[in-house]
Amino acid sequence: MTNPTSTTARPGDLAGRREWTAFVVLLLPLLLVAMDVSVLFFAIPSIDRDLAPSATQQLWIFDVYAFALAGLLITMGSLGDRIGRRKLLMFGAVAFSTASVGAAYATSPEMLIGARALLGIGGATLMPSTMGLVRNMFRDERQRGRAIGIWSGAMAGGIALGSVLSGVMLEHFWWGSVFLINVPAMVLLLVLVPVLVPEFKDPAPGRFDFLSVPLSMGAVLPVVYGLKETAAEGLDPRNGLIMAAGLVVGRVFVRRQRTRTDAMISRELFRDRNFAAGIGLNALAAFAMMGSSFFTTQYLQSVLGMSTMEAALWSLAPSLAVGAAAPAATAIAQRTERALVICAGFVIAAAGFGVLALSGTDSLALLLIGSAVMSSGIVTVMALVSDLALAASPPEKAGSAASLLETGQEFGGAMGMALLGAVATAVYTADMPDAAPEAARKTLPGALSTGDGSLIAVGRDAFVHSMQYASVAGGVLLLVGAVLAATRLRRAAAPGPSTT
Predict the structure, then answer these.
(1) In the structure, what pLDDT confidence band is assigned to residue 101 with cuts at 50, 70 and 90?
(2) How many Å separate Cα 157 from the centre of its chain?
(3) What is the mean pLDDT of the chain?
(4) d(Cα 390, Cα 148) in Å, to the nearest integer?
């Protein structure tokens, strides 16, 4: 099924039970991709015992999934527009299932790294396909806004759920079981999608630009890698050069897209300022959400002394507020000016950071309240700007539009971890005594490893101080986002006419 020309929504365009049932099915790959971001948190000690990876291999086991996902989102979004989003979703489900089995039964670190890379490739097909299909299935703007609100809440909840579910599985089964969770869900997807989900694709896509594939990867991967390394080790000349190389390749990629009629990213997408603004504001929201995760998880474990499982369970508490925030925000946005609701979302998230900045060394309640308020505001922003950007894009380019939203989100998240992490690290290091061991001066876990009670107390105070500074920085950036939303989106009362 291809998309006819855009028309104003008619009563017959309202999604019915079939579309909503299909939407529930499409949430399955979304949850699994989100869960696979955090599913290894508990499994690494068991993997270390069985496969004995080196320190470098252990990092790649963690990071290769995110690298493959980020590097191929743009390519897969464009490919889905050409061959059909449902078809790409089916291919991705097969790849994801195969990779999950390979990861579960990996017998060497190299095999596990390869399987995780294939999982990332599969994830890159699933994310833009599902969001693009939601754009096409829900032609009425109110229904589409509601669906994307639920979609955004499920994405945020999936990340928290992944660590908890993996912990439960590891209490009863071997480490490979955390990957096998994916298989039955993907089998169900492969059975139900052909029955429930119609096909959508660009009726006149043009030739596929193969040269843009390595260019897009060469632009995205060095920047994401450099930001991740900066978050872990701080900014140094090597990381700076890697990111600069990515930006140079990115410039070449953008120039190619501007000069080709069959470009991977259509120039039409950026003709509506709401689309470009939506990409940027979504990235800023991801910046805050991922940046805050740099210290909130460590606070639960290293300051409050919780086990990993306890920390994961407490991390689920804010998800209850998040699950309600996005659908509620979309309902409010349909009754008032959308830009004001987005602006309010940024302000609410900034207030959440303000609560986090008040946390002391024994402030579980403040941490949970601050995280819930902050996450609710951010998910509100993500849901509304995603709907705004998708509504501003031509229906036949829904996959490309979705992939750009997701790529911007990956960039924003990586930058948030790098920059807010750098603020926190600088404050922590400055607060630690010069006579402390080097490991203790770098990180709180390093201080905990010394077993020195007085040094541990100083380290916890320093960490909380660093978290307060990072929270203030994050809150200020979110207030900047509120100003941008209020000024750049003042006319965005609604996404515009609903289209097929």
Answers:
(1) very high
(2) 11
(3) 81
(4) 10
